[in-house]
Amino acid sequence: MADNPKAAWPKTPDGTTDWQYVFEDPTAGFIPLIARAQSTDALKMIATVILQKLFSRKNDVDELHLHLAHLGSIIEAGGNIEGMAAQINTLMRKVKNERIEKARVYVERKKAGAAIDRRSGLLWRISKLLEPRVLVPLGGLVVLALSGLIYMVLQSAVGTGTSISDAVVELDQAKKQAAKDAEQASLPPSDTQQPAPEAKPILVLFQSVRWPQVAQFTTDRPQYYSVVLSVKNWEQKVEICRRLPAVMDRFYSSFSDVMPPNRPARDAEIDALEKDIVGAINTILPESYVTEAAVARYGTREFRISPRPPYCSSPSN
Prior knowledge:
Radius of gyration: 31 Å
Low-confidence stretches: 157-162
Largest sheet: 5 strands, antiparallel
Distance between the termini: 42 Å
């Protein structure tokens, strides 16, 4: 890890570092690496090296010292190594979420700058079209085209045996009929009308959740689960994706509170997990956007995930 430069870290399609992979990858991620430490000294050394690697720039010195002080307080407090590793991983996930948010803001600003450049180019082209040497001939062509169109319409009306006065009468009748139809449409619906069907909920898919994150024994195999949230509209879906790091943390917190770490979960435990996830996610949103959560094991028909970054999408069908 110490020899791996930042430039070699995995990237997302938008060119930023894939922090979710860097921190959470079961094989090479920082957090699983910390969980595998066998002694307090190893735990402190691994965490220190990770923080120094993350905060290696000159303007990161103050923030690095702050995190190292936090790390030192965890180690000095003592306790079992699993408890200390859990506290350090909480610190690491805070750093991860900050990095993910910074990357998102960077990408949004980059896209906004490109959009401004495109609009500037378009306005430049429009201004060229509005110059007098272009606009005057173009206006003459438009007038000629309109004159020809009016002449063709009048000729068509006369040629089919319809006088201009008859055409005006028909037009007046059409206007009256349109006004009548608009008046009917504005009336309140009758009791016999069927109520409008409820809109289908929008599903939000995420990256798979690995549980347990760290196996107690080397022979244990973790399970992979999908979590699908249901919301009422697209704006609520966008708001959830904006808070993706916090949402994933709530997933893992709910799994930790409800799911057994050393055996497959029972159906009743899955049901309890779904209810816990709904409450946990709604606590970080302005309102209770999430109406339902569905958790499915890998290998079942219900297992659905978002396979590509940013790992927050809705199914196309």
